[in-house]
User: Fold HhH-GPD domain-containing protein from Pyrodictium occultum.
Amino acid sequence: MVLEKAYTLELKRPEGYSLRDTGRVYSFGWMFDGELVKVELCTGSVAVMREEGDRILLEVYAERGEKCWEEEISRIQWIMGMGEDLGEYQRLARGDPLAGGVVETMPGMRMRSTSVWYASLVAVCQQNAGFKQGWGMLYRLHLLASRRLRTPHGVYLETPRPSSLSLEVLHEARLGYRAHTVHRLAQSRAHELDCSSLERLREIHGIGPYSYALVRLLACRDYSALPMDRWLRRLAAEAYKVPEQVAADEISRRFGRWRGLAALHATIGFDAEPLRRALERLRRGENRPGLVEPSPISLWKYIPPMASAPLLGSR
Assistant:
């Protein structure tokens, strides 16, 4: 599917904001290429952004006749976290053994939000999975079920549509038991949900507290939502010298309404390494991202739109 240029926009880059750091975190190769940040606005519509001095230049590419981007483009600054004031959080996180490394090395990074549907796919693929395994499953879903949207800046793999995610496709993507959860999401019309109707997600079998909190965090910028899994619980218990059963309470005590963002930054800061290696790094005080490859900040280098990626599938 070849997209046509539909719109251009110039934005003033907020002071201290880094489009590059925002765009490179947890991005596939078609979302970030080292310079350009590409964001799916809606069906058949992609925004392409780049920094140029104190400006952010944006171009919208869309299918001929597709107008859904006209409403979504008004949300682009919210989607990209432009102008978001994280001063309070950064003061809390500075020097923290879990989240401090990201705040210190990537202060201009903001979370890039997604649709509820895409956040749900991310959350399910992350259930009981390591970094490579979880993102490998999502990558294979894209390869098997995404439309290829072609712009002058390369191919963009569109979010898989519910109608394209049969059980056969989901099993081919090697989702394991998660295939049935994604299939139920598709049958339950989860793609129609937004942040005002997100509670309905709880009714779907296979969406537990962790997945629900992660969707709230990624799709709604609800930083109070704490996606607590075994990895974070064990790491927090070690970092804060508390029993594992109260690790979530300790994160909440330290970060309050920012606890979900702190959890996300902990994952980025320790490069989403397996628990044993993350604990070793914690004991050495190595909480800054980019010490290993691939990692959440370099995922884009290893998974281009059309190739098979050797990193995927192993933990």
Observations:
- Strands lie at 4-12, 37-42, 45-52, 55-62, 148-151, 154-157.
- The mean pLDDT is 95.
- DSSP finds 15 helices and six strands in the chain.
